[in-house]
Every structure is written in structure tokens, then in C-alpha cells.
Amino acid sequence: MTYDDTNIFAKILRGEVPCKKVFEDDSALAFHDISPQAPVHILVIPKGKYVSIADFGAKASSAEITGFYRAVSKISADLQMQDQGFRVIANVGLNGGQEVPHFHVHLLGGRKLGPMLAKAA
Ligand code: 5GP
């Protein structure tokens, strides 16, 4: 899948759309989800143009991958999510329900999150 420069997270990275930023370094930007599904719901995105976690893992440099996951770890520590626990989700494509085609992980916490998946209908 070709990267679409008009996706909303690309616009946030370029500063064209505002976000409630919680973290930024050379590798990653993290901000509050606009429609939180838990008391803490943060999106962490790499600075590079990757469509999904699969694209990121296949094409990103080792430095980008390390930097991204170090950021995830730092954010969860800074937001004091680690003691009580939290969930990390990366949706991919149609079956995964991915809405925004720029790789991102959801960090969710602040309450017990329940079963990992809803039962199939
Ligand atoms: P996905 O379904 O692609 O894994 O998740 C995309 C997430 O991006 C959703 O949870 C949605 O609420 C969030 N989102 C969509 N548009 C915006 C936006 O403009 N700003 C922020 N902060 N989050 C957004």
C-alpha cells in the first residue's frame, strides 16, 4: 500500500492539524486520541511514512524501530501506566479496523480494559 500524505496523522506531523501532544522526539510523536476509549488513550506514531506496523517492521531502520519502541516505553512510564497495567493495540488494514493509514499504536489504560476482543456476532 502506498503511503497517503493526506492522512490525518501526516497533517498532525506537519503541524497542519493540532493535537494534544504528550511526547515528541526524533523518532516518535504521541498525543491524546480525539475519541478516547479509556481514561488514558494515547496514540504513538513514528515520524517516518509507514502505513502499518507491517510496513514499519519491514522498511524502517533499526534506529527508527528502536526509537519508536523506546518512546512507547517512556510514555507508559511517564504517564504512570506501568504499575496498574495497560494495553497496546496496533490495528492493521480492513480486518484490523485500521482507520488512519499511518502506523500508530494505541496505549490504553486507567481502568481494567476487559476482554481483549469482543465475541464474534
Ligand atoms: P485506528 O482505527 O486507525 O487504529 O485508530 C485511529 C484513531 O485515530 C482512532 O482512535 C481515532 O479516534 C483517532 N483519530 C482520528 N482522527 C484524529 C484526529 O484528528 N486527532 C486525534 N488526536 N485522533 C484522531
Any overview of this molecule?
- With 121 residues, the chain is an alpha+beta fold.
- The chain is built from four helices and five strands.
- It has helices at residues 8-13, 53-59, 62-78, 93-96, and strands spanning 21-24, 28-32, 40-46, 86-89, 105-109.
- Strands 1-2-3-5-4 form a five-stranded antiparallel sheet, covered by helices on one side.
- Strand 1 (21-24) and strand 2 form a beta hairpin.
- The longest helix is centred in the middle third of the chain and has 17 residues, at 62-78.
- The radius of gyration is 14 Å and the shape is globular.
- The mean pLDDT is 97.
- It binds guanosine-5'-monophosphate (5GP).
Write the layout of secondary structure elements.
Layout: H1 8-13, E1 21-24, E2 28-32, E3 40-46, H2 53-59, H3 62-78, E4 86-89, H4 93-96, E5 105-109
Antiparallel strand pairs: 1-2, 2-3, 3-5, 4-5
Bound molecules: guanosine-5'-monophosphate (5GP).
